[in-house]
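Good morning,

Attaching, inline, the backbone tokens for the sequence recovery test we're adding to the shared suite. The designed sequence is right after.
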């Protein structure tokens, strides 16, 4: 756990992958309500739905063929180049949708940002050359002409290539299903999740393939491959009952509520990172859940976001409740049993370390508190925001909607109770505001945070958004500085 502002001298491959996953998340998450609306319409009105209705069932096709890809294309374009990027993103992607035989989710997630990037490059190159009074004419015709060319290109060239790519991915995953080895994807999913790479897999592969399969079958197992709350629940239960570390044991019950009911899976990541061998239990639990869903022929009608048990049950189609519930229960039980055995095996060592670990954490906190005082006194020449200048603290996570929300809420409550004049907010890593004085993020996202904020902004990396010595140290610095001024 470190608090640092030094920029990364070399961007790690993991940070780049996380950034890519974060961009996919930023495209998908704002539109999840629309995906859920489509899933509910599908679950209710298709011939095998809860209340089959031929008339209302006609909504299913146009919504998935046009509405959802258009939303993705617009959002992706807007992320790259604002509203102009969103508009040309739709124009560039519509050619894919008209010429394709499958829902073009992958295509929309490619053509939306790509079209916006091309327009952005044009705008940057030409903007300073436009004569006063001709801005609207040039900008509108530029968007129209470039959009026209991109639409034709996507219809004739990009669309067939994306369709071939999609068919290839589908064939690979179907081969895993047909051979019965689909549960082995847990070996990839679980380590990727705790390294914050889950969005690359979920939003980039499983969700598009799942939506496509749902059109044909009314449900898809792809939606449960990485979102099952069972393995995380089993891990946290094992920590609650068998961990020899008092701190980890006492925080587990609260984490269970946040994870299982709230659907914020990031809350259990520190527990895996604290004892990496528990990834074995996570993989075993996830694989068992996938196998159960496969045997029971169970699936969901849309991607559950957040991955709460409530979201799971809401998106379960008729006739699949037994399979989905068993999927979660089996994953929880296997994860619990394996992780309990692993934790019990090292419980004595943890118990011996528990008090020492707590004292070590306190010592680190005190050291960082002294470091903050040194900064206030001008003892450090590092280009960081000293406590005297901290007026805005931003908690950042991958999507800006999970662990950072919890961390910001707890810290905001703490500073409000102490009547400290500090603004506390949360956001996605790629959207950290330029006026942030301090950014707090998980240690595995530190490189991405530094890529976003650059020099001059303090980046504090932590292991747990709920309780961490570095957060305590930040609070002490702010409190001491404001006491000194008063």
């Amino acid at each position: 756990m470190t608090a640092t502002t030094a920029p990364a001298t070399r961007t790690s491959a993991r940070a780049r992958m996380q950034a890519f996953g974060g961009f996919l998340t930023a495209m998908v998450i704002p539109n999840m309500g629309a995906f859920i609306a489509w899933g509910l319409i599908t679950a209710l009105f298709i011939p095998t739905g809860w209340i089959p209705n031929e008339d209302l069932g006609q909504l299913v096709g146009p919504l998935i063929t046009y509405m959802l890809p258009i939303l993705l294309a617009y959002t992706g374009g807007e992320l790259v180049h604002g509203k102009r990027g969103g508009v040309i993103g739709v124009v560039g992607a519509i050619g894919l949708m008209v010429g394709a035989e499958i829902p073009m989710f992958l295509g929309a997630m490619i053509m939306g940002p790509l079209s916006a990037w091309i327009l952005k490059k044009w705008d940057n190159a030409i903007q300073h050359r436009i004569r006063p009074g001709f801005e609207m004419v040039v900008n509108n015709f530029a968007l129209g002409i470039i959009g026209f060319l991109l639409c034709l290109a996507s219809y004739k060239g990009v669309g067939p290539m994306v369709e071939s790519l999609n068919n290839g991915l589908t064939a690979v995953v179907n081969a895993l299903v047909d051979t019965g080895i689909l549960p082995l994807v847990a070996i990839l999913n679980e380590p990727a999740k705790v390294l914050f790479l889950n969005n690359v897999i979920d939003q980039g592969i499983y969700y598009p393939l799942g939506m496509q399969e749902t059109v044909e079958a009314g449900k898809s197992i792809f939606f449960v491959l990485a979102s099952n709350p069972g393995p995380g629940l089993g891990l946290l239960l094992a920590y609650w009952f068998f961990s020899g570390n008092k701190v980890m044991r006492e925080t587990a019950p609260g984490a269970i509520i946040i994870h299982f009911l709230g659907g914020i899976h990031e809350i259990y990541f520190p527990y895996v990172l604290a004892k990496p061998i528990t990834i074995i239990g996570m993989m075993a639990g996830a694989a068992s859940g996938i196998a159960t869903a496969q045997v029971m022929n169970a699936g969901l009608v849309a991607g559950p976001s957040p991955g709460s048990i409530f979201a799971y049950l809401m998106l379960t189609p008729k006739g699949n409740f037994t399979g989905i519930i068993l999927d979660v229960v089996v994953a929880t039980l296997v994860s619990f049993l394996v992780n309990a055995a692993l934790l019990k095996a090292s419980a004595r060592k943890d118990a011996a370390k528990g008090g020492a670990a707590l004292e070590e954490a306190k010592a680190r906190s005190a050291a960082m508190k002294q470091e903050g005082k040194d900064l206030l006194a001008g003892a450090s020449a590092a280009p960081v925001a000293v406590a005297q200048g901290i007026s805005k603290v931003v908690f950042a996570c991958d999507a800006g909607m999970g662990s950072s929300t919890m961390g910001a809420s707890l810290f905001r409550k703490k500073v409000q109770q102490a009547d400290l004049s500090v603004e506390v907010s949360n956001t996605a890593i790629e959207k950290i505001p330029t006026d942030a004085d301090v950014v707090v993020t998980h240690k595995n996202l530190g490189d991405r945070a530094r890529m976003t904020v650059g020099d001059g902004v303090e980046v504090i990396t932590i292991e747990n958004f709920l309780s961490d010595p570095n957060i305590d140290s930040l609070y002490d610095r702010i409190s001491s500085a404001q006491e000194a001024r008063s």
